[in-house]
Fold GNAT family N-acetyltransferase.
Amino acid sequence: MEARDLARVLDWAAEEGWNPGHGDAAAFHAADPGGFFLAEEDGAPVAAISVVNHGADFAFLGLYLCRPSHRGLGIGFDLWTHALARAGGRTVGLDGVPAQQENYARSGFVLAGGTARSGGQVQGAVHEAVRSARPAELPAFVAAEGMASGVVKPDYLGRWLRGDDTRVTLVAEAPLGFGFATVRQCREGAKIGPLLAETVETAEALIRHAATLYPGPVFLDVPERSAPLAELCGRLGLAEGFRTARMYRGRPVIQTADIFAVTSLELG
């Protein structure tokens, strides 16, 4: 895909209920421009997938979509096989719908947990100890997210964390504990991710502050390992929506942080 193709595929993802961000196409494409693929019929795109190489040892599979008119014809699987070859010997992760677990398992993927999307209206509150991140701080946040998630993803996060018209990265200062979060405007409301916080109080301040920036509900994708964050989402009135299965082909990646929301289900 070229960048304009990726924008179209994100429209498909919106139709499937994934609610992508308005600026996601540029941030995704910057992560690995050669990692996005289309299948075409008579010059028209009918299926898509991404296998983004985040480094020498790890890749992430996402945006696996086939137009309803072309499902069941083997097109998606051929595209899957073609794209996975690009990962080579890297470990490959994915966040897939649970109904497809058996299909992913046939390609060597093993279940390693799950992620739940929580969303709803949050009572926003500007916190005096929360501010926009400065450009010089972003490399440290890329490193911190990598330590928390288990994989450092400099090209992806380096672009993702930068502010623009559709997103801002927030950072907590004293007396709050360490924490940061990116909030981005989406087709519906806004998503917060990544979010990494030292304490639940810090996470709550970041979420409430983020809720003041864009109208509508807020959403977070919370891994099973992040039980304190899931409990906080419940207290804030966020309802659990759909779940995804985190699976790996190769060595599983270990998340180390307890208060952590993933950056995106599409690229990890």
About this structure: The first strand starts at residue 36 and ends at 41. The two ends are 19 Å apart (CA to CA). The mean pLDDT is 95. The chain is about 30% helix and 30% strand.
